[in-house]
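=== RUN LOG ===
request id: a7f3
mode: sequence -> structure
chains: 1
length: 71
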Amino acid sequence: AAVERTRRLGYGIIRDTTVVGVSAIGVALPGGADLPMLGVGVAMVNDRLSPPRAKSLFRLLADELAGITLA
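=== RESULT ===
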C-alpha cells in the first residue's frame, strides 16, 4: 500500500518511523527500467510537515531533481 501511494503522489512520507516526533519526505529520481537511481529527502519535526507543506516540498525537491542529468 505504501509503495502504491508513493508512486501515485510522486513522493513518500514517513512519520515517527525512525525517530518518534520526526517526519520525512523523499523523492526519487527514476533511472532505467523505472527503478530509482537516487533519492533526496528532508526530515523535520512532525508539526512542520503538514499536508500542504509536503506538497510544496515535493515540488521543490522534484524541480531540483529535474535538473540532474544522469550519465
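=== NOTES ===
The beta strands are 12-15, 22-30, 36-45.
The chain has a mean pLDDT of 90.
=== END ===
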